[in-house]
Design a protein that fits this description.
By secondary structure, the protein is α/β, with parallel strands linked by helices. It has 5 helices and 5 strands, in the order αβαβαβαββα. 30% of the residues are buried.
């Protein structure tokens, strides 16, 4: 009578077993490997600042590009949410301003050459705050009580002030 205990296990079976063990160990190591923490979502205050641009939008070299950059920079430190809308033409400025008023923007920042339309919107919406950024060499428009007119050169500093003021007066998060 021969015994099965005395038989040798073929070497290829050891190789298959070793590969299986290494594969399982690799899978366990991959599953247990620490992953970087997911990025935290920014917590914004319940207030926003909105930018209305001309057709060029916020692309580099456009009049609104440095204004948008200043708004984003101020948003990082104040947690005021910022957004923008590009007007597709002069006829769209008034409807776009009305859209931003309906969004309850804490301040509407406007760039471009439609200062008369911005001032008309300011007169029609006395509860809304406006910041009109004028191009270099443009005559300053007659501001209303709810509109501040600044030059392109002074825009970044003024935007920072406005967003800090919005943040200081914003209701606490979650209220």
């Amino acid at each position: 009578m021969s015994s099965s205990l005395g038989r040798r296990v073929p070497p290829w079976l050891f190789a298959v077993g070793a590969v299986a063990v290494l594969g399982i160990a690799g899978l366990v190591a991959w599953l247990a490997w620490p992953r970087p923490a997911p990025p935290h979502a920014r917590q914004y205050l319940s207030v926003s600042a909105c930018l209305l641009t001309d057709q060029a939008g916020i692309v580099a070299g456009s009049p609104a590009a440095p204004v948008w950059q200043a708004m984003e920079s101020a948003s990082l430190s104040t947690h005021v949410m910022v957004s923008y809308l590009p007007a597709t033409g002069p006829a769209d400025v008034s409807p776009m301003l009305n859209t931003l008023v309906q969004r309850n923007c804490g301040v509407i920042v406007a760039t471009g050459s439609a200062s008369s339309q911005v001032l008309a919107a300011a007169k029609a919406n006395p509860h809304q705050h406006f910041l009109l950024v004028t191009a270099p060499g443009t005559a300053a428009a007659a501001a209303t009580s709810n509109t501040v007119v600044v030059s392109q050169a002074d825009a970044a500093g003024r935007i920072g002030q406005v967003l800090r003021s919005l943040a200081a007066n914003a209701p606490p998060p979650g209220s």
